[in-house]
């Protein structure tokens, strides 16, 4: 009888506990009600950040940014890797794992983790600062755990996972053929159809909750690396945990709105591009994809126990490191002030999560003023009807009409968008277009077709080196196997290389993917008679993309949104290399305000960056926008 009562008590305790957990997590405040905002360590420390560096940054977030809505501080990848000679992003065997094959913070870089405490102390300090604590986690299980064949923890029982009368191990659940494309040696998917695979993932996320984690950035499960079963299962686990944890997916290489629709309800934010770094081309590449996600109504749609947000990636501003680097922050952002404003403005107009990437110990006043601009942060959090706006006019003839309202005239500009190299499947008909031309002294160049849509554009040409004839297995066709140089005359030969040497996967943009020639397979290209150019290592083919907008004046873009006080926000972006006057009619802006006819004579307008205020008697607004810069108008009209 005594036994019966005690087990009844245990059961009641346990069952009510479970019930309470479920209820408390599902009735808590809506998760990610606004686009999440915070700081992430990747752009400034790559993987090498230490506990002190992290907490120093967190303290600055608390002091200088928290009042502006910056809330999450996130440790990016490889916090479990020992920072010793030989360790780098895709090295194998340098990670600290526990007896259950789970990652443990490197105790040298994270001293407070010693004694099995994991991130408990760091999370506590972050919470005491009034902030929330986030970590990065890779897909599935580490190769190191699979090689060590660690047992799997059953968190519901507290011991090894047993099923069908036997203990289960890491090698039972790791799927070697599904390693992470951009971190081949590091991690692989787990079989979530097996009880043991589920138990392993549960043991990870339960531990994160026990540590006090509030945000998980789950990497190498989305975009080209899509692993929907793992995302779905992790989402379920997060739903059941007693701790609200925001769920973020990364990176978003080749993500389409259709793919995003499969995950948006399971997560709180998901990347829609590959990694963004501090180059102008990286910013430009976001305009089209961001527009596509707003058109598909994906901004702030239903997410995991709250909302979900398309994520344009961190802001690489201020004091940074380089992709894949083992060195900490050591250089300024390459973006000039106009480009930085453009990035912040696009990110805010499209309500992307804002995660600052620079080392805050070394933030300059200009960068600080951009990332804390009150109007942009208001737009980021509270605007609605965010979309690309096409009815704009542009002209580069600015000499006689500086900073004044423009006459209405369309003028198509000479495109100045640089070509972007990318990889696609070789069977894709879009991959056809490489033409060989023989130059003087036996030098051959291969050029991407001059695109008739962009008649002004110089075709992208590369130069052949080490050409040899290769014959296929059936000995029926032959093709040219070459390395490709970006220039005939540079001091050091640099070759087109299909590895990106950065945190992203093979099909992503390859801008700047030229590295010193190494005779590696990644630098060998097969030029087929059908005009495709295949990479020896990846098996994918190279294509050249441009980011031209259809239906809007070339080289300029505009976004529009409405404010919570009835104001209209309009941003003009100048992607051209020359100053451009961009303008729009007030009557056309009215179409984003359902049922509201705008009487322009009543409108007052302010341009944010210049602080200029003016009326709009002529019925249109305009500005001469610097190259790569933007103008942001706040328009108030009484109706
Ligand atoms: C071009 O040829 C290569 C090699 O034979 C083949 O793999 C590829 O699918 C072809 N692509 C197209 C678009 O015809």
TrEMBL record:
Pfam families associated with the record: Melibiase_2 (PF16499), Melibiase_C (PF17801)
Gene encoding the protein: LOC111496438
Cross-referenced CDD domains: GH27
Top EC category: hydrolase
PANTHER family: ALPHA-GALACTOSIDASE (PTHR11452:SF42), ALPHA-GALACTOSIDASE/ALPHA-N-ACETYLGALACTOSAMINIDASE (PTHR11452)
Keyword GTP-binding listed: no
Protein name: Alpha-galactosidase
Superkingdom: Eukaryota
Organism listed in the record: Cucurbita maxima (Pumpkin)
């Amino acid at each position: 009888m005594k036994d019966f009562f005690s087990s009844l008590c245990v059961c009641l305790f346990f069952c009510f506990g479970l019930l309470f957990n479920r209820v408390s997590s599902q009735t808590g405040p809506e998760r990610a009600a606004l686009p999440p905002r915070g700081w992430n360590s990747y752009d400034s420390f790559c993987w090498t950040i230490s506990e002190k560096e992290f907490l120093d940054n967190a303290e600055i977030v608390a002091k200088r940014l928290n009042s502006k809505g910056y809330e999450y501080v996130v440790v990016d990848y490889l916090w479990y890797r020992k920072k010793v000679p030989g360790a780098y992003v895709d090295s194998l065997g340098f990670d600290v794992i526990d007896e259950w094959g789970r990652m443990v913070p490197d105790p040298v870089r994270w001293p407070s983790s010693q004694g099995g405490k994991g991130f408990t102390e760091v999370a506590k300090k972050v919470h005491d600062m009034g902030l929330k604590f986030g970590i990065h986690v890779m897909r599935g299980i580490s190769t190191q755990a699979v090689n060590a064949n660690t047992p799997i923890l059953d968190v519901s029982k507290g011991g090894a996972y047993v099923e069908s009368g036997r203990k289960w191990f890491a090698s039972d659940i790791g799927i070697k053929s599904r390693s992470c494309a951009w971190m081949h040696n590091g991690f692989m998917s787990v079989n979530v159809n097996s009880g043991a695979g589920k138990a392993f993932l549960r043991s990870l996320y339960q531990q994160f909750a026990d540590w006090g984690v509030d945000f998980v950035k789950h990497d190498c499960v989305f975009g080209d690396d899509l692993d929907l079963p793992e995302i779905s299962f992790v989402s379920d686990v997060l739903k059941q945990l007693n701790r609200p944890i925001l769920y973020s997916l990364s990176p978003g290489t080749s993500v389409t709105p259709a793919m995003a629709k499969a995950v948006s309800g399971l997560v709180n934010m998901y990347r829609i591009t590959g990694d963004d770094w501090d180059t102008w081309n990286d910013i430009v590449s976001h305009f089209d994809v961001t527009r596509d996600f707003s058109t598909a109504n994906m901004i702030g749609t239903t997410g995991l126990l709250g909302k979900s947000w398309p994520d344009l990636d961190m802001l690489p501003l201020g004091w940074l490191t380089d992709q894949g680097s083992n060195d900490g922050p050591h250089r300024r952002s390459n973006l000039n002030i106009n480009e930085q404003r453009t990035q912040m403005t696009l990110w805010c107009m499209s309500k992307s999560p804002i995660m600052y990437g620079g080392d805050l110990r070394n933030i300059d006043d200009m960068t600080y003023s951009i990332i804390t601009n009150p109007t942009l942060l208001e737009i980021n959090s509270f605007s609605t009807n965010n979309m690309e706006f096409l009815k704009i006019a542009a002209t580069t003839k600015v000499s006689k009409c500086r900073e004044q309202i423009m006459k209405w005239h369309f003028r198509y500009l000479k495109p100045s968008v640089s070509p972007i190299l990318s990889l696609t499947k070789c069977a894709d008909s879009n991959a056809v277009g490489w033409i060989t031309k023989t130059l003087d002294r036996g030098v051959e160049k291969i050029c991407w077709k001059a695109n008739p849509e962009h008649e002004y554009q110089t075709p992208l040409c590369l130069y052949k080196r080490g050409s040899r004839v290769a014959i296929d297995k059936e000995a029926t066709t032959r093709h040219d196997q070459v390395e490709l140089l970006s220039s005939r005359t540079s001091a050091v030969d640099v070759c087109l290389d299909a590895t990106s040497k950065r945190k992203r996967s093979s099909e992503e943009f390859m801008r700047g993917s030229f590295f010193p020639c190494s005779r590696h397979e990644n630098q060998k290209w097969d030029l087929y008679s059908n005009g495709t150019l295949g990479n020896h290592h990846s098996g994918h083919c190279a294509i050249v993309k441009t980011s031209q907008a259809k239906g809007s004046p070339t080289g300029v873009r505009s976004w529009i949104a409405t404010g919570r006080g009835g104001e209209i926000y309009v941003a003009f972006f100048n992607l051209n290399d020359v100053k451009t006057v961009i303008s729009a009619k007030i009557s056309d802006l009215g179409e984003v305000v359902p049922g509201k006819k705008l009487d322009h004579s009543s409108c007052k307008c302010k341009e944010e960056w210049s602080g200029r205020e003016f009326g709009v008697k002529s019925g249109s607004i305009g500005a001469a926008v610097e190259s790569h810069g933007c103008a942001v108008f706040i328009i108030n009209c009484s109706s």
